[in-house]
Amino acid sequence: MKKPIIYLSTAALIAGALSTPLQAFAAEANEVNFTKEELIYTTIDRSGSVEDMYTTNVFEGSNLSLIKDFGDYEELRLLNTTHADLTSPSADESVIQTDENRVITQGKLQNRKLPWIFTFHYLLDGKEIDPEKSAGQSGTLEVEVNIQPSDESDEALMSYVDHYALQISTSMDLDTHFDLNSENGIVSTAGNHQQVQWTVLPGQLEPLTFTVDTTEFADFDWSINGAPLTLGIDKDLFDLSSFTEPLADLETGIQAVNDGSQSLFSGSTELNSGLERLLGGSQQVTNGASELYSGSQAFVSGTAQAFAKTKELENGLADLTDGSRQLQSAAGQLNQGSRQLAKQSEPFFDGLASVDQGVSDLTQALSDIESGAQQLTDRSKSLTDGSARVLDALKTLQEKVSLLTASFNKAAELADASQNIQSGMINLDMGIENIDQSIEEYQTKLKTSGLSPSDLADQNRAAKERLAALNEQLTKLQPLVEEGLLDEAVLTDLQTAINQTEQLTDANSQYIEGSQQVIEGIEGVVQPEGDLKAGSSQLVKQYQSFNEAVTTLIENLSSISETVEPLKQAIDSLVDQYGTLDEGVNQYTESTSQLSKGIQQATAATQALKTGASTLAANGSSVQSGLQRLAEGTAGLSSGSKELNNGVNAAHAGSLAFIDGLQTLHNSTRTLETGSRQLLVGTEALESGLQNAANGSDALVSGADQLASGTSELASQTSDLPDQTEEKIDKAVAEFSNEDYQVQSFMDDRNDQTENVQFVIQYRASDTDQASNKQTETTPQEPKSLWEKFLDLFR
Question: Any coiled-coil ranges, and where (predicted)?
């Protein structure tokens, strides 16, 4: 732990060090009681290197007689008496014989280390300078003193670093220096000089700094004193209640936070369970919406196929209409041609009747017959072409009527799809009602267990208030940290735990508010008066009407199918019978061709004509009778084709109405598909939101569990916080008092009578710097005594 710098006066430090109670030690040489104090006087340069080192040893006791001292001195001499004898039996041992009660010796040391290294840095207007080369300059001076252990591997030297306090000071002339400031030192004024001094506790090695403005810079003298830190601190001087009472409140608050975190964990568990049940209901709704969407897609596909077939039906009926018109036209032409044929064949048959009148009229009669035969041949092509067109039209009509019958058979599938969609809508409506009931049951259970969102929000708000109070109480502990009485890590851990708890309570507040909004939003749309429930109920009612219309349409189509079936059978029979008629027409046209050829032959050979005249007359009556029947048949065909054309026109008009109805139905199914898709997307979004809420609830349960564990551990660790604080204070006081520290001789660890070791370290500016500082003495000084010279070592 970083120890703060405590500022003490030099006089108090040395006086406290010199007032250490005398202890008795048995001298190894003569068993006489005496104690020893060592004063290490050292001069250093600006880099911290040792220039000269002396030690002054003070021996005190009654009946000293013989004193044995250990140490490697370059030279050693007595300072305060001539009634003593100093000898050195070996290089590192000296013996003093005396009858005095106090004996002081001074020895010079060589190649010895100080426990510390001191370095001095000067910056004038921001640039580092050499004081010896910058004397007399002006500007703003920044000075920094750095302290480091000289040898961390030397346990004896590190013992002084760990237990000795240092007092460092320097002074300057007020005539040439002003505006002296130091962040970590004490500035004081004595006469025409101003001084800055620091007291550095053991282990405190931060740089020492000050700034001063100078009009004539001169290097400074530095004085450094080191002595064991002995601070007699009595706990009774401090009223610890001002620290322990807030800690007791903090302990109570932590326990309250722990109780709240346990309740939060329990409530979050209940909330998580309710969200899981709500998520299950939303999944049922999503499944129903998915079935509705699938059914609506099948419905749209069915109506699209039906509508596509109606296009074919419309095209077929249009072709049928054209064919029936062509049939009617061809039948009319056939009737007209057969009538003309019967009328024009009358002279031929009259000629046959009078062929026996005489050969004289044969040439003229044959000429007339040849002319009539030629006309009959010319008309036969129109007759055969018209008959072929009638047969083709009848076959086309037969195909279209077959397609129409197949389309009517597909209508039953449309009715089944519509019925499935109605069932899906009813299931969806019931699922929405189940969600409403699940939400009501969930809210009832929350209220019964005292974990409603408002209660959780109140508990969370109360926990945040308690955390804020704990934060405020923690600020009262900061002085303890600054005084080194409380471990800063403990306060940091408490602060971190409270901050994390505050973040969790903030997240919990947002979650409670968000989950309540989600539940209220779901409840608002699934209640009987909500948009989702009202829309679903209205959709069920409207679709019932739509389904009835579809059923009625299918029934009408069924009746149309029953009407079309006899028409199909009649057309099939007509096609079969007309094929026979077409063959007779072809045979007739072939006979007329042969007749024309025979007449031509008769013209060439009247004798052959006369021979076959009786046969021709007999055959002519049969032909005349056939022509009469042909004229009557074509008249019936013309009448039937007209009725057929009227029926086809009526069927065409009905099919157009049917196609318009299917178009309307298809558009409605598309609207249904779009609505069901939106419903599915909405239910999937609802399920996703509930899943996210469930995941958040899981995270909340996990976080609440961790918080409960953390607050339990925090409550356990802070259950005796006031007592722990007092223990920390006692430990800190013990560290500063150095009660257990045993001073070791700097000269030799065999000097076990050593009670006190002090260091006086000085850095002296060069003579040139001192001359420029105008600190010359003009009054002659009297010669100093040996004791005054010794005292100067401490000044």
Answer: none
